[in-house]
Specification:
- The protein has 91 residues and is α+β, with helices and mostly antiparallel strands.
- The protein has a single domain, classed as HU Protein, Chain A.
- Helices cover 44% and strands 30% of the residues.
- It is built from 3 helices and 5 strands, in the order ααβββββα.
- It has a 3-stranded antiparallel beta sheet.
- The two termini are 20 Å apart.
- The model has no long low-confidence stretch (mean pLDDT 95).
């Protein structure tokens, strides 16, 4: 499912116009992104948790040359599914 399909599904499920659903989906994405950027965690009980994971600097290898390189420390967003979402996948 891509973003356009998500907007259409939200519009149908919530009985909204496509434009209102698009605004709602974009607002959700923006709020989650701003919260993660600020270092906060977004926890939606039963659905899952969005948070930022910090990766430390480490050594790696250039696959083409075999040369050892240093991979910089970074922050990456992660999502962990909640129990209700995991249980829904089993049904």
């Amino acid at each position: 499912m891509n973003k356009a399909e998500l907007v259409s599904a939200v519009a149908e499920k919530a009985q909204l116009t496509e434009e209102d659903a698009k605004k709602a989906v974009n607002a959700f994405f923006a709020v989650v992104q701003e919260a993660l950027k600020a270092g906060d965690t977004v926890q939606l009980l039963g659905f899952g948790t969005f948070k930022v994971r910090e990766r430390t600097a480490r050594e790696g290898r250039n696959p083409q040359t075999g040369e050892t390189i240093i991979i910089k420390a970074s922050k990456t967003p992660t999502f962990k599914a909640g129990k209700s979402l995991r249980d829904a996948m089993e049904a």
